[in-house]
């Protein structure tokens, strides 16, 4: 029997990736965190395409896109992101990457480049993919679509604790500002903006635990 294709979109720090990871395990699906891919390109751009003032040179990045080989490898049950053979799973969570990723993700060239990686994974079914445009653009024919939202206070708290657990220093104000700024850029961009697909189920998990959100989503999947 063909396994389902599930699209999970939504605002930053609504728990999309950690929830998708658990659902993938329960249903025997592959999980793809597409935000990590955009972060991977951003990490590359910061290191390989910055000018002398530290500003990312987009034209240089577009010319070098074919040099970027991003790959997820399963290590100890975790999917670890590799860039050209190097583990970059920790580096893609830094403040510098978070501060630049939405500007990189606005670029049509970057989105086109990552499209193939995302679609090829879903071809055989059996995948849960989380991001911003999965239900609207990447996998418009997904079997199930969900759109996650939560209050900014709750999301700030969650991201702050997540970063703390990764040993990344940040004030709550910085975390909050980054979330607001990314959501604004992601929602207002011309290409593949963050928005709920018409046929997606809206899940506001402000007052739900991670487990409650997972159970709620699973209740729709037959
Ligand atoms: O999911 P995460 O917060 O790690 O995503 C980082 C950024 O990558 C988002 O703020 C957004 O700019 C971009 N992104 C995107 N489309 C996706 C996934 C992520 O534009 N499908």
Properties at a glance:
kinase, kinase activity, globular, nucleotide-binding, Rossmann fold, cytoplasm, 9 helices, five-stranded parallel β-sheet, alpha/beta, 222 residues, three-stranded antiparallel β-sheet, 8 strands, binds cytidine-5'-monophosphate
What is shown here, in short?
Keywords: ATP-binding, Cytoplasm, Kinase, Nucleotide-binding, Transferase. It contains nine helices and eight strands.
Would you kindly provide a written description of the structure presented here, covering whatever features stand out?
Helices cover 47% and strands 18% of the residues. It is α/β, with parallel strands linked by helices and 222 residues long. The chain has a single domain, classed as P-loop containing nucleotide triphosphate hydrolases (Rossmann fold, 3-Layer(aba) Sandwich). The protein starts with a strand and ends with a helix. The model has no long low-confidence stretch (mean pLDDT 95). Helix 2 packs across helix 5. Bound molecules: cytidine-5'-monophosphate (C5P). The site of cytidine-5'-monophosphate (C5P) has 14 residues, from helix 2, helix 4 and helix 8. It catalyses: dCMP + ATP = dCDP + ADP; CMP + ATP = CDP + ADP.
Outline type: globular
CATH topology: Rossmann fold
Bound molecules: cytidine-5'-monophosphate
How far is the first residue's CA from the last residue's CA? 13 Å
Query: Could you name the CATH homologous superfamily?
Result: P-loop containing nucleotide triphosphate hydrolases
Q: How would you characterize the largest beta sheet?
A: 5 strands, parallel
Structural class: alpha/beta
**SSE string:** EHEHHEEEHHEHEHHEH
CATH class: Alpha Beta
Q: Mean pLDDT, rounded to whole units?
A: 95
Instruction: Report the C-alpha radius of gyration, rounded.
Output: 17 Å
Report helical residue fraction: 40-55%
**Largest beta sheet: what is the strand line-up?**
2-6-1-7-8
Domain count, please report it. Answer: 1
* Poorly predicted runs of 5 or more residues: none
Number of helices: 9
CATH architecture, by name, is 3-Layer(aba) Sandwich
Strand content: 15-25%
Number of strands: 8
């Amino acid at each position: 029997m063909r396994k389902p294709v599930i699209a999970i979109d939504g605002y930053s720090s609504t728990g999309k990736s950690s929830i998708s990871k658990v659902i993938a395990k329960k249903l025997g699906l592959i999980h793809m965190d597409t935000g990590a891919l955009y972060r991977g390109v951003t990490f590359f751009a910061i290191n390989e395409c910055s000018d002398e003032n530290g500003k990312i040179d987009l034209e240089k990045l577009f010319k070098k896109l074919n040099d970027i080989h991003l790959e997820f490898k399963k290590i100890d049950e975790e999917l670890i992101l590799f860039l050209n053979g190097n583990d970059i799973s920790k580096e893609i969570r830094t403040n510098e990457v978070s501060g630049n990723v939405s500007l990189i993700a606005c670029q049509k060239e970057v989105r086109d480049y990552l499209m193939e990686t995302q679609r090829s994974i879903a071809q055989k079914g059996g995948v849960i993919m989380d991001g911003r445009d999965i239900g609207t653009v990447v996998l418009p024919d997904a079997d199930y679509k969900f759109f996650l939202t939560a209050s900014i206070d709750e999301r700030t708290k969650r991201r702050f604790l997540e970063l703390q657990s990764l040993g990344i220093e940040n004030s709550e104000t910085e975390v909050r500002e980054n979330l607001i700024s990314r959501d604004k850029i992601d929602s207002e961009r011309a290409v593949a903006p963050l928005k709920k697909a018409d046929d997606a189920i809206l899940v506001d998990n402000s007052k739900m635990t991670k487990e409650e959100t997972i159970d709620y989503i699973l209740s729709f999947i037959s």
